[in-house]
Amino acid sequence: MTYKLLLFGTDLKEVLNFGSNPGNLKLFTFNDSLAKNKPIVFVLHGCVQNAEKIEELSDWKKAAIKNDFVVFYPQQKIINNASACFNFFSESDINKNGECLSIYQMMRYAIDTLKIDSTRIFLYGASAGACMSEVVCANYPWLINTAALCGAIPYRTYVGLKAINLLGKTEIRPAKEWGDLVRNQNTFYTGKYPRIILAHGTEDFVTDYGYAAEVIKQWTNIHGITDQPTDGVPRFGNNDKVDLYIYGNGKQKAAVMFYEIKGVSHQLPVDVGEGEKQGGQDRIFSTDIDFFLTYYIVKDFGLMK
Fold first, then answer.
1. What is the CA radius of gyration of the chain?
2. How far apart are CA 70 and CA 14, in angstroms?
3. Would the pTM of this model clear 0.85, i.e. be above it?
4. Most buried among 87, 130, 235, 269, by the most CB within 10 A?
5. For 275, left (φ over 0), alpha (ψ -120 to 50), or beta?
6. What's the CATH number where 215 sits?
7. Nearest alpha carbon to residue 96 among 186, 12, 15, 167
8. Is 3 exposed, middle or buried (0-12, 13-18, 19+ CB in 10 A)?
9. Three-class SS of residue 157?
10. Is 248 helix (H, G, I), strand (E, B) or coil?
11. Tally of structural domains, the chain
12. What is the pLDDT of residues 164-213, one digit of tens each?
């Protein structure tokens, strides 16, 4: 297979021919020069965004340069979805097929060309990108170390036209029922599932804030742990708007983590500035609350030098 790179903007490069690409997605990368055996973070954008926009808000390039890892940015095409959302609700994209399979091929490209350990792949997604990250975790759990989900709903909450019911209300189900939706993707799989880091604003009306509890139920059930926090840090980072909850047991002390962002809607928390713990931009899908979420996710991923 031939791999070809095209320049995108100033420093993101488009990767062509990473596979058969059944989902018809684009792929961009940053900091991949001589990147042998480095960790890789896949960053998935939200609706009405693209690779450049999610990078502008989340500022993963800054973390990649400082901590020496590679970033890949899958990107939706308007021809697939008029709002540029990843199709996390489409049967043709969420079962080792379509867009899900395209992202798997991107990961195989990364493993094969950058010669990385397959346990060093991390996912970060916002909104529809967070939901598609769960799709990948459910279908290919053995490839993902940890996934960070910003404003997500559980995997397979809605499929098909029922996705229109997403706005403004929460679908509540028992934890085992949520967990079975993930387990059914790999009936005979007995290996580890990815750690999950969730961030959700308490005023979110798009992916309703109530879904935070349902996502926690789904993934704690997958890990076989309680959906009640076993540890926590109020006013995390000395910020009145952030509480951290941790879910685990003796063997899995932080299998699931939840950053509750108080008073924030469907937006990424940032802290605009040049300081070590600062980054991101204050835009329509982000808000400056003096808390740069990406910085803390890098720490939670174990990538900070």
1. 18
2. 14
3. yes
4. 130
5. beta
6. 3.40.50.1820
7. 186
8. exposed
9. coil
10. coil
11. 1
12. 666 678 999 999 999 999 999 999 999 999 999 999 999 999 999 999 99
